[in-house]
Design brief:
Keywords: Coiled coil, Membrane, Transmembrane, Transmembrane helix. The protein is built from 23 helices and 17 strands. By secondary structure, it is of the alpha/beta class. The strands form three sheets. An eight-stranded mixed beta barrel has the order 8-9-11-12-13-14-15-16, surrounded by four helices. The radius of gyration is 59 Å and the shape is elongated.
């Protein structure tokens, strides 16, 4: 241990406090060394100075010189110890002891009697007292050796000065010195052992205190960290709860109108059917002009219209009534408190009047109406699905007889519903039983004067030979999810027919296949088409998929994405039944289609007036400007054909060219058309 500055004249009180407070053995030895120096230096200096003073009266010059030498040695020793900054504690104590011993031994020579050596014995006594209180034995050993040497030199001095040695006195002196030295050794060992033990205990205690302090600090840090983590967890928990609420809300409520969606509405209806002890009503609501609003004003205005209509309806229904949006422009209402037809009709008429009032949305003033189909629990059904189906059936009747009306479900509808249920049940096994078959209606290329292809039309013949119209079973298949399997079967059969004609007639034909909106909403539909074409080994450009405008009602962006995915497979896309409903020419700007098929309702009008002719002519011209082929459906007479030729319509389809034919007649028809074409060219 080294001090930065060695102060032998430092305050003794400060050194004592440091010795008492330290728990390090090396520090203790360091402070003891300094304290020893502080105690020894004054004694040596005072002794040397006193001796020098009294020797001034002596006549012998050598005594004065000797005394001066002792004084200068003490002062020199003090100076050396003061400036010896780089000495270790062990070197310092050895230096201190060496000078102290030398100081005592040099004291003998000026004294010629035992009494004269008393200051030396006094100094040794002081050194012994200091030595026994030190941890190390270096000072005690030096003091013992010095005392023995002092005795020997004193005896030798007396012998040379007096001619004889006082043996008893010298022996007694040796014995006393030995006893004192042995006792000092014992006392110093006891003191040092006790001190070391205490220091060890204090050191252990201090170490444990430091460990405890560190543990406390770690505990406080852990506590703070836990508080921070707990705070973060609390925030995360709150955020998770908020997200859960949002997810639950999104899963159960319509994001446009914030009304219960189909899922939540059906859950409420199921729960009410289980618990209801009295009659209640289910009302199916359809906004009559929604598609026209969407087509003419855009989806943004259409969405605003739906949202406003929902707010109006919510404002007038009862507190216990449940209004939900089932999808598109279809809503449903549960009226738990049913007290009879008259009161219910009054409520529904009020709702009808509210929805017939004009809507002001941005710059548009929109006039609309609504149709209502009503079923009553338990008179018409006792479970949720049947109740909603009954209300839907009643609504369908409203649309048949005219919109903006209210219709209750009745017995006749019940019979029709039973029939539909029967058809639905039979439909589930019709595909695996092979009850479906395809008929093919030819399409004629006017400019080339030849058959361009066929449209595949699905038919269903029951085991009892009853033919079920596609208009009956297709909606059921779409509602039950069977349309996907049926649609894939149709595409496979069409591919096989293309391959059959190529193998037997040696001619490639194009076949158009109708695609359901349900299939188009399936994200895997394009990959299904690609796989079927690969499995059947048919070129993709020989297949045309016909879609209808109904896929555009809910999400036109999704529809465009689906069409693009299909076109990547290489198939052609046609927009079917254009002009049947509220067709919008705006669709043609965004839809990546290859062909547009004008609905037969417009073609039939070519016989009766000029308005239809202008409409059809404009559609053909605009479609050609967009680089899209035009197919006219339902061409039945020469007058219609002549007009379409005059307007450069590309392809026609209808009874004038050929009726839908069975699969086994297609090959012969292709051969006959091939022969006719050859004879004309010949």
């Amino acid at each position: 241990m080294k001090d930065q500055i060695f102060h032998p004249w430092g305050e003794v009180r400060s050194l004592v406090q440091k010795i008492r407070s330290t728990i390090d053995l090396h520090e203790l030895i360091h402070y003891e060394t300094i304290l020893t120096a502080c105690c020894v230096f004054p004694i040596e200096l005072i002794g040397s100075a006193t001796n020098f003073y009294f020797r001034l009266t002596e006549r012998e010059p050598w005594l004065l010189t000797w005394t001066t030498t002792l004084l200068m040695a003490a002062l020199g020793f003090a100076s050396i110890m003061t400036i010896a900054l780089n000495l270790t504690d062990r070197m310092r104590i050895h230096l201190l002891c060496s000078f102290g011993s030398l100081f005592v031994l040099l004291r003998i020579f000026p004294d010629f009697s035992t009494i004269g050596s008393m200051p030396g014995w006094f100094f040794l006594f002081i050194m012994t007292l200091i030595a026994v209180t030190r941890v190390d034995r270096i000072l005690l050993i030096y003091t013992g050796i010095t005392a023995i040497s002092f005795c020997v030199l004193s005896s030798v001095q007396q012998f040379f000065l007096n001619g004889s040695a006082d043996t008893p006195i010298n022996v007694l002196r040796f014995i006393l010195v030995g006893v004192v030295f042995i006792v000092g050794i014992i006392v110093q060992k006891i003191y040092a052992d006790l001190l070391k033990r205490d220091l060890h205990q204090v050191t252990m205690l201090h170490a444990r205190n430091e460990e405890i302090t560190q543990l406390n600090q770690d505990l406080l840090q852990s506590k703070e960290a836990l508080k921070s983590k707990n705070s973060q967890l609390s925030k995360s928990f709150i955020q998770i709860k908020e997200n859960e609420k949002k997810l639950i809300h999104l899963a159960n409520f319509d994001n446009l109108t914030d009304l219960p969606n189909r899922k939540l509405f059906m859950e409420s209806l199921v729960r009410l059917c289980r618990k209801a002890s009295s009659a209640f009503a289910v009302i199916f609501i359809d906004l009559d002009k929604f598609k026209a609003i969407n087509d003419t004003m855009g989806h943004y205005i259409g969405d605003r219209f739906l949202k406003t209509a929902a707010k109006r309806a919510t404002a007038v229904i009862g507190e216990k009534d449940i209004l939900g949006r089932l999808g598109g422009d279809e809503f449903a209402l549960i009226v738990p408190d049913y007290s009879g037809k008259e009161s219910l009709l009054e409520k529904v008429n009020h709702l009808l009047n509210i929805l017939e009032q004009p809507f002001q949305i941005d710059k548009y003033k929109i006039t609309s109406s609504a149709s209502f189909g009503i079923s009553i629990f338990p008179h018409h059904a006792v479970n949720a699905a049947e109740l909603l189906k009954a209300a839907d059936t009643a609504l369908y009747k409203v649309k048949e007889i005219g919109k903006s009306k209210i219709q209750f479900f009745d017995d006749q509808m019940q019979e029709e519903l039973i029939y539909v249920t029967k058809i639905e049940s039979a439909l589930k096994t019709a595909l695996e039983r092979g009850e479906f078959f395809l008929q093919y209606q030819p399409q004629f290329d006017i400019s080339r004067n030849r058959i361009s292809g066929f449209e595949a039309l699905i038919r269903w013949e029951r085991p009892d030979h009853e033919i079920i119209s596609p208009s009956v079973f297709i909606p059921i298949a779409e509602r039950t999810g069977l349309i996907s399997d049926i649609g894939q079967w149709v595409l496979k059969e069409a591919c096989r027919k293309i391959r059959d004609v190529k193998e037997k007639v040696h001619q490639e034909i194009n076949i158009a296949v109708n695609v359901s909106p349900v299939q188009m909403r399936d994200v895997n539909f394009s990959s299904q088409v690609k796989d079927i074409l690969a499995d059947e080994g048919i070129r993709s450009d020989l297949i045309e998929l016909e879609i209808t405008e109904s896929i555009l009602i809910e999400n036109i962006d999704q529809a465009v994405a689906s069409i693009k995915a299909l076109k990547e497979t290489g198939v052609h896309i046609s927009l079917d039944d254009f002009g049947k409903g509220y067709s919008s020419l705006n669709y043609l700007k965004v839809l990546p289609i290859d062909t547009l098929k004008i609905d037969m309702s417009l073609i039939k009008g070519l016989d009766v007036g000029t308005v239809e002719k202008k409409i059809v002519g404009s559609i053909i011209a605009l479609t050609h400007d967009l680089g899209i082929l035009v197919v006219s459906e339902g061409v039945e007479n020469q007058e219609q054909l002549d007009y379409l030729k005059s307007r450069s319509c590309d392809i026609i389809q209808g009874f004038l060219i050929g009726q839908p034919m069975p699969e086994n007649a297609v090959n012969q028809f292709v051969v006959s058309q091939k022969d006719d074409h050859l004879s004309e060219n010949g």
